[in-house]
Amino acid sequence: MSDLPSPHDWVKRSAQSLKVERLEAFFSGHAFDAHKHDTYAIGRTLSGVQRFRYRGVSKNSLPGETMILHPDVEHDGHAGSASGFRYQMLYISPALVQQVLHGKPLPFFKDGVSHDPRLSAATAALLNSMEDELDPLEEDDSLYGLVTTLQAVCGYNQAHGTTHDYAAAALAREYIDDCIEQAITLDDLAKCAGRDRWSLSKDFRAYFGTSPHRYMTMRRLDRVKAAVFAGRTLVDASVEAGFFDQSHMTRHFKKAFGISPSRWCLSLGE
C-alpha cells in the first residue's frame, strides 16, 4: 500500500478527549489493510458503501446501519461502490467499558453490522456534532448509554463453569500502564496479580479484549502518536515509547491501524 493517500481521501479527527477517539473520513477506494485494534470500533457510514472483512466474512455497511467491531478482531476497509464512502467512527477502550460493566465479560456483537435502532441512537449521541468538544458530563452519560445498550443488544453469555478473576486482570493492566517503557514478562504480571500466568492471560483477554502483550504494544503506540502530536520525530517517539527503533514501531503500527506511520502523519494535516 502506498504511503500517500488518494488526493480525494481525507481524515478529520474530532476535538481531543481523554476517554474516546472520534474521527470522520472519506475514502474513494482502498482505505486500510487488515489490522486489529485493542479497542471497540463503533461507527456509522454516512454515504456510499463501506465494505470490510470481519471474522472471515465480507460485510457491507450502509447509511443508517451501525458498525460494531470487537477488540482484537481483524478487519480491513475499502469502498464497495465507485462513489467511495464517508463514515464516522469512535474508539472505546475495554478498560473504559469495564468502568460501566464492573467485571462482566465484554459484550460481543458477532455480525459486525447492526440494524438495531437502539444502537444507532446510542452511537449518534457521541458522533453528532463532531466538530465540537463533548461536555464531560454529556460524554460520560453517552458512554454509559452506549455500553449498556451494547450489553442489552448482545446479551450476557458466559460459558458454564468458566471463571475469571477481574481483580487480577485489573492489577496486571495497572502494572503495564505504570511500567510501559520497561521490558515486562508474563511472570512479572502474574507475580503482581497473585495469579498463575496462564490463568491471568485468560483473565486479561476476558475483561480487556486482548492479550497483555498486545495491550502493552497498543499503549506504546498511543505514546508514539501523542509524541508526534507534540512535535517529536517518529524516530525519537519510537524509542521513548519503549520500542527498539522506528522500524520495530512501524511493524506494530501497520498491524494495529492498517496504514504506515508516515501515512498517518500525513492525515494529521487534513
UniProtKB/TrEMBL annotation:
<keyword id="KW-0805">Transcription regulation</keyword>
<feature type="domain" description="HTH araC/xylS-type">
    <location>
        <begin position="170"/>
        <end position="267"/>
    </location>
</feature>
<dbReference type="InterPro" id="IPR003313">
    <property type="entry name" value="AraC-bd"/>
</dbReference>
<dbReference type="Pfam" id="PF12833">
    <property type="entry name" value="HTH_18"/>
</dbReference>
<dbReference type="InterPro" id="IPR050204">
    <property type="entry name" value="AraC_XylS_family_regulators"/>
</dbReference>
<keyword id="KW-0804">Transcription</keyword>
<dbReference type="InterPro" id="IPR037923">
    <property type="entry name" value="HTH-like"/>
</dbReference>
<dbReference type="Pfam" id="PF02311">
    <property type="entry name" value="AraC_binding"/>
</dbReference>
<keyword id="KW-0238">DNA-binding</keyword>
<dbReference type="InterPro" id="IPR009057">
    <property type="entry name" value="Homeodomain-like_sf"/>
</dbReference>
<protein>
    <submittedName>
        <fullName>AraC family transcriptional regulator</fullName>
    </submittedName>
</protein>
<dbReference type="InterPro" id="IPR018060">
    <property type="entry name" value="HTH_AraC"/>
</dbReference>
<comment type="function">
    <text>Regulatory protein of the TOL plasmid xyl operons. XylS activates the xylXYZLTEGFJQKIH operon required for the degradation of toluene, m-xylene and p-xylene.</text>
</comment>
